[in-house]
Amino acid sequence: MKLYYAPEACSLAPHIVLRELELPFELIRVDNATKKTAAGDDFLAINPKGYVAALQLDNGEVLTEGPAILQYLADLHPDAKLAAAQGTFERVRLQEYLNFISTEIHGGFGWLFNARFSEEVKALIKEKLFKRLAVLNQTLERQDYLMVGGFGIADAYLFTVLRWARLFDIQLNEWPALARFQARVDQRPAVKAALAAELA
Q1: Exposed, middle or buried, 85 (CB in 10 Å: 0-12/13-18/19+)?
Q2: I need a surface site. Which of 21, 34, 159, 179 has the fewest CB within 10 A?
Q3: How far is the C-alpha of 144 from the C-alpha of 36, rounded, in Å?
Q4: The whole model's pTM is what?
Q5: 19 close to 65: Cβ distance less than 8 angstroms
Q6: Chain-centre distance of CA 84, in angstroms?
Q7: In angstroms, rounded to a whole number, what is the distance separating the alpha carbons of residues 123 and 120?
Q8: Burial class (CB in 10 A: 0-12, 13-18, 19+), 70
C-alpha cells in the first residue's frame, strides 16, 4: 500500500493506524501547493480531489476520505480492535464519532486556515468549534478514549485534528480532558513513529 500524505495534514490519522496495525506501506509526501509528490509525480492523477490522505492499494485501487480509509484499515485486522465489528451498534457509534470529528472538528479547524476570512469571521467559527470541543471533553471526562473499548481509529483522527489547535493559538487546557487525551495519545509508539517520519 501507498499512503499519500502531507505534514500537519489529516493524513496523519491513517498513518498512525497503519503503524498501530504494523502493516507494510510506502509513505509518499505530497506538496499541497503544487499537487506534486516528492518524486515529481502528479498527485491529481492519484486523487483528482487534490488533497490527502489517499491510500493506494496493492491492486491499484485508491481510497480517499479519512474516515473511509480508517475503517478500511481497521477492518483488515479486526483482532486489533481499532474499530468495532461491522453490523454492531458499537460500529454505528464509531461512525457517529467519525462523522462528528470530520464535519465539526476537522471542518471547524479547516475554515480557520482560510486567510481570506476576517478575524471577526474566525471568531464566530471558533465560538462554534469551542462548543463542539466541549462536547468531546465531556465524553473524555468519563473515559480515556472515545469508544469504551480503548484506543481506536476515531482517537487517531481526533488526535490529528486537535494538533491544529496550536496553529491558531487555541489552548486545549481550556478543555482539560481533551488536553489529557492529547498527551495520552502522543505517548503511543505508533504515534511517535508516525510523527517522526512525517516531520523528519
Answers
A1: exposed
A2: 34
A3: 39
A4: 0.97
A5: no
A6: 18
A7: 5
A8: buried
Q: What DSSP string describes the chain?
A: -EEEE-TTSTTHHHHHHHHHTT---EEEEEETTTTEETTS-BGGGT-TT--S-EEE-TTS-EEESHHHHHHHHHHH-GGG-SSPPTTSHHHHHHHHHHHHIIIIIIHHHHHHT-TTS-HHHHHHHHHHHHHHHHHHHHHHHH-SSSSTTSS-HHHHHHHHHHGGGGGGT--GGGSHHHHHHHHHHHTSHHHHHHHHHH--
Grid coordinates representing 88 are 454492531
